[in-house]
Design goal:
Elements (H helix, E strand, L loop, with lengths): L4 H9 L2 H43 L3 H28 L1 H12 E4 L8 E2 L5 E13 L8 H8 L13 H8 L6 E7 L1 H10 L4 E10 L7 H4 L11 H5 L1 H4 L6 E5 L5 E3 L13 E4 L3 H18 L3 E8 L5 E7 L18 H4 L9 H11 L7 E4 L2 E4 L2 E4 L3 H4 L3 E4 H6 L3 H8 L4 H10 L21 H6 L1 H8 L8 H12 L3 E2 L5 E5 L5 E3 L7 E2 L3 H17 L13 E11 L2 E14 L6 E8 L6 H20 L6 H11 L2
Parallel strand pairs: 2-8
Antiparallel strand pairs: 1-6, 2-3, 3-4, 3-5, 6-7, 8-16, 9-10, 9-21, 11-14, 12-13, 15-18, 16-17, 19-20, 20-21
Amino acid sequence: MKYDARFERDASRVPRNKSLKKHKLRDKNAKKSVGSRSEKLFQNIIKTLSFILSQFVAKPDIKRLYIVWIILIISGVGLGVNLARLQILQGTKLKNLAQDQQLTKSRPFVPRRTIIDRNGDMLALDRPVFTLYAHPTLFKESKDAIASKLAPTLVQGTIFAKTPAELLSLFNKAPSGLKVAESLPEEISDNIKNLMLDGLELLPSQQRLYPQQELASEVVGYVDGDRNGQAGVEYSQQNLLERTMPKLRYQRAMNGAWIPEQLATGFVQFDDLKMQITIDSRLQRLAREAVRQQMEKFKAKRGTVIVMESWNGELLSVVSEPTYDPNQYYNFSLDRFKNWALTDVYEPGSTFKAINVAIALEAGVITPDSVFNDEGRIFVDGWPIANYDYEQAGGRGSTSVRDILKYSSNVGMVHIIQKMKASDYYNALQRLGLGQTTGSDLPFEVPSQMKNRQQFVSSRVEAATTAFGQGFSLTPLQMVQLMGSIANGGKLVIPHIVRGLFNTKGEAFWEPNYPEPQKVFSSETTQKVIEMMESVVHDGTGKAAKIPGYRIGGKTGTAQKAKDGVYSKAIVTSFVGIMPVDKPRYVVLAVFDEPQGGSGGVVAAPVVKSVIESLISIEKIPPSNIDEVQQQKEAEKP
């Protein structure tokens, strides 16, 4: 069949467009109705939810709302109160606690200053020491092998010495933490380190060392475990012996370690100052030996020797026996730490007669040639007073002041003092410092003791007993001070031990400033007394102190000890010497407590002689009479 174009034309005349439009309109309306239904459904849901929500919001529970608000208000107030408590009331405390946890300050260890004697010899110094611990559980060798290797390093013959058997026994006591030895010096610790043995631990520390041991312990003193001085110069000069060093501030790091914030000024370097004291170690050693020998010979309870340079008060020797080793102070009783030359008083006895003669001469009531009747025994207010040799010698009759001192007459001294008014005599004693201390830089000095003015003046026997050195008491140190005033022309100097702080070149950094000496006697008075004291040594009670060729003045003393207010049979013997008489410079005193037998001339005078001989040798003091020395040498030839 052929294609006919009329079909195309006829087809175009058919009204199809209306039906198509209707069809399209129905489709459009159908879509529109479906969309509106969805929107309405969604809107309905929203309205429903809004209604439900509005029911809860629009009509809440009023009580519950109040409760919530009250809780919130109370919580806020409580929080504010607690914040105020922490910030205001406890702020400082909490800040300090935080700083304690996060910051710390520590003063780095600085060695204590060294103490040297007048010649530069070492008396006290700091040194590093080590404590050795053993931990057997860490040993990589057998205990026997460790003990055998370690024993030789702990030097035999020392306090550290231990045998292999002793070490093995120690190692078997515990698996760890065994203290083998302490206070080991560096050389021994180095030897132990060189063994390279596992299980041995060396802990370092610092120790105060006294290389001369007990030589000057009563003067130097000691330092305790807390590095505080407890006696002697170590105590009295604590502030000068301790070096000042600023504290380092440390902050805790993240790992808990303490890290210094900055290095303190002077941390690396510190001064080289040393404290020099007036003691001469050579003289101190010889004096101590002399005291010990005499104590043993006469079984004395205690003994002391003091040597002082009269013009400036420097103490060249201070010996107090029995003493202690400051390196091992913990092994001694407390009474050993007392330097009884200045901590205890005694009645000086006849050594004080020289002072009383000087008082009477200064008052102008006597001269060296004044004569008094020595009856041997007298009574004062009913109390008997007799010479020490009255039983053998009786009375001496007319006796000069010179001989009264020479033969140590008690009765003669009473007559001399009775020439003075009791009040004037008391005033003179007070001017000399009785009832006070000497003002020495040595610690724990006690004052001398005497009756009060009313007691002294109202009773004649008080002045009478004081005339021969009893009825009052003083320290050996004050006795030296008083005799120093006789030796130096009448000046009361301060006995002292500290010279000052000096550097390694010997230059003074600091020196103590002592008060000007007080004038108590004229030089004329003291010269007369010294010449009278020379006769005591030449041919009187002090002949045991005589040294050929040397002019020595002296005075013996033997006094009864009072116990519970009553004089007993126990005695204190003493002797004081001044030399040389032509140019007095040194005062030497020896005192012995409760010797068994003997007097001051027998017990104490030989010790003073020995000390003076040592002083002559050390100071190279020439003799006053060379001919007498030659004669003595000739006499000693076989």
